[in-house]
Amino acid sequence: MDISEQLKRDIELIKRNAETLLPVEELARKLERYYHEGTPLRVKLGIDPSAPHLTLGHAVVLRKLRIFQDLGHIAVLVVGDFTRRIGDPSGRSKTRPPMSPDEIERNMASYTEQAFKILDPQKTEVRYNSEWLGKLTFEDVIVLTSKYTVARMLERDDFKRRFEEGVPITIMEFLYPLAQAYDSVAIQADVELGGSDQRFNLLIGREIQREYGQDPQVILTMPLLIGTDGVHAMSQSRGNYIGIAEPPEEQFGKIMSLPDDLMPQYFALLTDIPWDKVRDLHPKEAKKKLAWEIVAQFHGPGAADCARHYFERVFEEEKPPEQMSEIKVPRELLDEAGTVWIIDLLSASGLVSSRSEARRLVEQGGVWINGEKVTSREARIELKEPLVLRVGRRRFAKILPIS
Question: Cβ atoms within 10 A of the Cβ of 33, count?
């Protein structure tokens, strides 16, 4: 392929669905250097180790990172173990509390395993930024802070808002974007990816690299995926997320519960299927296709087929699943008439995390026995034959009679 044609194709592929890509001309120059010299670009993605699970929101950026890998480049995952101890607001109204090294390490235990469901491990470096930030002397930090002004820092929306509202901003918080920018210096990033909420920090990275005599990185930001509530960006703290490592049936069911108007965004950011190919389908069929595609990405086509069958059986045909855990209630929970209190039954089933959750679910109408809703938390259940216990939309267990 002619180099000009290859350049055009690659840039179009990289730009697809991106919110920001700048400067495009610098990306073109870096790509041309790669074509001529064969040295792959180093494409950085900062990883926040605040939680142990990746969500479909993370998958949006990881899928873009995989495109760079498929074009021959190196993905550099920078784990912010050092910066997480500072606590970046990232658009929040106050600083997040710091985390201990032990908490961070626990969260990172399965992080890369989940990321490698999308990324090519052979073209990925995983680096912890404590590797270089932990070695900076106080003199080094002063030199770093001299390379950016307070006035520029206050241009960041959340800092500006807090300053105007009189909400305290510590000097430590100003160090976060500088430390993140220094990560780009340390790994010599050619490109940095992030969500749209990280644009300001990524731009600082360009400035700091220039101050340290490096070719500034190109920045690419992706839209924030809206969560299952249909309102806010997907977030584990809000509980409106779908996890990459969640069981296939759970993933499929959550996707089927999404508002219809999210379908174009989800198809664009999480699949290779153009929205034009599915927009004329009935909304339920479009969601089933979306759910199948996403489950197949992370669990394989066979698991996606099973998840679809499970959904159709349980939620459309209103039948219990074919496979359920089987529970025997301890004999000491039964009274003389052979009945068990519903709260004891729920606790023994393992389908609830606590007795308080059991009470709340019954009060909210979220518990069924053999398809009939339990309406009182004082209910007692007779155990003379196998029963199907359902909790919420997706939790089932077969309760076996006492022999």
Answer: 14
Taking a C-beta distance cutoff of 8 angstroms, is the pair 215, 189 a contact?
A: no
Q: What does the block give as tokens for 278?
A: 């599915």
Q: pLDDT by residue (tens digit) across 306-322?
A: 999 999 998 888 888 88
Residue 106 · residue 49 · CB < 8 Å: no
Distance from C-alpha of 66 to C-alpha of 50, rounded to nearest angstrom? 23
Number of domain units in the chain = 3
14-71 confidence digits (pLDDT tens): 999 999 999 999 999 999 999 999 999 999 999 888 777 899 999 999 999 999 999 9
Closest CA to 398 of 383, 386, 380: 386
Instruction: Look at residues 233, 212, 206, 211 and name the one whose alpha carbon lies nearest to residue 222.
Output: 233
CATH code at position 307: 1.10.240.10
Distance CA 176, CA 91 (A): 13
Q: How far is CA 331 from the centre of its chain?
A: 43
